[in-house]
Amino acid sequence: MQNAELVGLKAYMADNPGAVIEDVARERKVTPRAVLEALPGGMARIGAGKFAAAMQDIAEWGEVTLIVHTDDAIFEFTGAVPKGEVGRGYFNLMQPKGLHGHLRHERCAAIAFVERPFMGKVSAFIAFINCDGGIMFKVFVGRDETRALRGDQLARFHALADRIAPKAG
Question: Residue 167: pLDDT band by 50, 70, 90 thresholds?
Answer without folding.
Answer: confident
